[in-house]
């Protein structure tokens, strides 16, 4: 993961605009929101899925950057006062605290559009035009109403009211899981996976996407702000529905372990090139931040 993090960070630094006299605050806010922080789980999934499919790592830099930029933009907007109103992200003040709400809004917008510019223009993405279009479409769907944005809307509507397990899982399969599934799909597509491999990779991604969110909810209860790098207990303070609140802490952990096992089982037809994906499934439920 550290090797992939260094690789995608270098690529992100190249794509992000350098600070200049024109729109300097916006450029600074974009770099602030993306660089110097983050686990880079989603870019790692792009690289690992591409490797499992037999792809070349140089072809995967653009998709890895695109997925991380969508993730970063979503965090900038989620932290805004109109949304979660949070002041800490990745161990430092949130983008709107550092640069003001208007600049943070624009930074999020600019990061989102840069993601699609990379997929459209990256010269290192040596795939057919049809695959390039498929990558753009897949990421757009995951980021929009049928994915991340739709899940966030359900999350906001659920504050302060009781919801069942099925609705909670639907919300998180959109809000968190859709982008994780897109990361794996982009890696698989760019790596040359066939339809059967793509279907297996998607089953893997759906399971770890859910496990990832369950573990996030568990950590919000039992970790601390310094370890998390964001405000501990924020979901409880906002009276948001979570897996520990609905199931209890230990049953929530067990559900995450079940999803991890499902993810690893989905990769049974893959050889050792998928070991990075198998290891990540275990990391998702063992991480402490």
TrEMBL record:
Membrane-spanning residues: none
Q: Which cofactor does it need?
A: Mg(2+)
One GO term describing the cellular component: cytoplasm
User: Quick one: a GO biological-process term for this protein?
Assistant: terpenoid biosynthetic process
Q: Which UniProt keywords apply?
A: Isoprene biosynthesis, Magnesium, Metal-binding, Transferase
| One Pfam family in the UniProt entry | polyprenyl_synt
- Gene Ontology molecular function terms on file: metal ion binding; prenyltransferase activity
The record's family statement is:
Belongs to the FPP/GGPP synthase family.
Record's NCBIfam families?
FPPsyn (NF045485), PRK10581.1 (NF007877)
Query: Which protein is depicted?
Result: Farnesyl diphosphate synthase/geranylgeranyl diphosphate synthase type II
From what organism does this protein derive?
Thioalbus denitrificans
